[in-house]
Amino acid sequence: MGKERLIMKLNILIFLPIVIFSIIHTAVGEKINIEIKDKVTLPEKQMVLGDIADVSCNNPSLSERVNNISIGNTPWPGNVRKIEKDIINARLMDEGIDFKEITYGSTTSSLITVESITITGEEIIRKAKEYFLSKLSRPESEIVIESDRPPMDKLLPANGGDIRWEISQIDANKDRGNVQLIVRISIDEKQYLKMPVFFTIRTYEDIVVPNKKIDRHDILAMDDLVIRRMETTKLAGVTSDNIEDLIGKRAIRTILPNIPITAEMIDNPPLIKKGDFIKVSVQSGNLHVVTKGVAKEDGYMGKVIRIRNIDSNKELYGKVEDSTTVKIIF
118-203 has which fold? Predict the structure, then answer.
């Protein structure tokens, strides 16, 4: 035990002069003066004390060391960060500098803002519109794009980096009604902004409408139809902008004048109507017989219908071949 105490005393005696020299050295020769700047605007960066204060010291090496003490990050564009003297003292202590040997000017805090550029709401809307129009399959003349909730102007750091826009659509298949896009803005691959943009898309098309009342089961004719420019935003299944495509179609229900003709309003008339006299074709091996019959129901191309053979008076089933012929199925 006596030997250990002796070693401990020797260690204390060895290091004590170093500690004393250090304290005296700081106290008598290296006074530091810090003049805090009231307001500072900086580029986006990791701040050091020299960015927000003027540091003076008769020791150039110590002065440089104090100037380069980290204070933290600059605030987000549009915001203000306040750095007070107490925060500076804490950073000095972290670096092993005795803040008691430091004198300050009259200013006790600094307000920091960051250099920024403005991205206007109008520019955001324009970029989103350009993206949406580039994805459309219809011509721009057929749509009207309205912005119900235009975005506010946004601030980004003015660090001179490359600005990259990335825009996507929530429902990529939607081309009318309420549409939502997401706008992302990055600078040098770092994303600074992500925000939704909302559009109302109205569509206007040249479509076929009747110029008079069309009754149920009427066959559409050239004189019944006209082409008009109409809003089709809420319409589904608009049939055509070509009158010839609809000639010969049958109305499934009554269609009023100037009402867009949609797919659920029309169908193809039957090739064979119930009660029509038809040719009945019977094929059995090399034997082919054609006789007469009567359709017991409407028949469409390729569909099976019930018929009555006139000669035998029997009911049979056959496939519609054309407007006059049914082929018997065995």
Answer: Thiol Ester Dehydrase; Chain A (3.10.129)
* CATH number for the domain whose boundaries are 204-267: 3.90.1210.10
Q: Does this model's pTM top 0.70?
A: no
The CA distance from 124 to 191, in Å, is: 15
Q: By the 8 A CB rule, do 199 and 182 touch?
A: no
Class of domain 31-114: mainly beta
Rounded Cα gap, residues 49 and 24, in angstroms: 25
Q: Which two tokens stand for residue 282?
A: 């019977």
> 299-324: b or e for each residue (b if 16 or more CB lie within 10 Å)?
beeeeebebbbeeeeeebebbbbeee
pLDDT tens figures, 230-278:
998 988 766 678 999 999 999 999 999 999 998 889 998 898 999 999 9
Q: Residue 177 in contact with residue 201, Cβ under 8 Å?
A: yes
CA distance linking residue 242 with residue 258, whole number of Å: 15
The candidate with the shortest Cα–Cα distance to 43, out of 73, 64, 67, is 73
